[in-house]
Amino acid sequence: MHVEVKVPGSCGELIQGTLAGEPFLVTCPIDCYSTVTVHTHKKSAGNHPNGLGPKASMALAKVLDFFAVRHYPYYLELESELPAGKGMASSSADIAAVCIAVATSLQKKITAEQVAVIASAIEPTDGVFFEGIVQMNPLRGICQNHLGQVPSLQIAIFDTGGVIDTLEFHTRQDLASLNHENEALIREALAVLTVSDAVSIGRAAVISALANQSILYKQCLPQIIDVANEAGALGVNVAHSGTVLGILFAPEASTPFIEHAISMIQQRFLHLQYMKTVRLISGGCIINEMAGDKSAAKIHTRR
Q1: What CATH number is given to the structural domain containing 247?
Q2: DSSP character for 280?
Q3: pLDDT tens sequence across 17-28
Q4: Residues 246, 28: contact at Cβ < 8 Å?
């Protein structure tokens, strides 16, 4: 048997803040992935196989404990397209991919809700492994609302520089009070958001991005939004606890159209580093499972 699990990362969040003091985020999954491959023909060295970082190793230990499995006999290989410390859900994707890969290889079931509880015990988690777009509490790992499927907006990702430690960010002493001050704007963003409508996604993202300036400032953000609008973008979203921002374009926007907008932004904001252009997707995981010999068919599942 050969198992491969892919979990998407994110370009920040569409919305993030608090409602009545309870933290939440609205996911922004993209078509860049963390991939965990289970090699059942290799034995691992204890419970810390090669290729797993500290958080992924913690996920392995916790999911084995969840299933009351004392020894895991397989070798896990983790690869990721997601840089760490940027607000692209790299750790959440890694942790979820490990949990789902281990469960699949043991022929056990695990739900996104169960993965969220495991992940949030390691660090505040992004819900990119839930199907569709969701509103969730990242600290408690509780999905509050399934918002639906999204159009495949194109997102030009820019990095503002540096890295942010997620755990450190969420323990800031001023975070609760700053979020409280923003609650009216965050409610407005949620009221505007209809995830099936590309224009409303852009509008909601901008409201939340600007509100977050008092919490994690991004240089020239209002001006970046103005130039993005001038270039024909739908809006701008940010990593509310990270360094990236995304320029949102309609699904049908042409490559030359997007490249022209990227050029405009690069020329006017020299502190921004263009990373890549991706697609907004509906979240979930992709499981490729091969049983028997190499000629066996792969099963593709998003859940």
Answers
A1: 3.30.230.120
A2: B
A3: 999 999 999 999
A4: yes
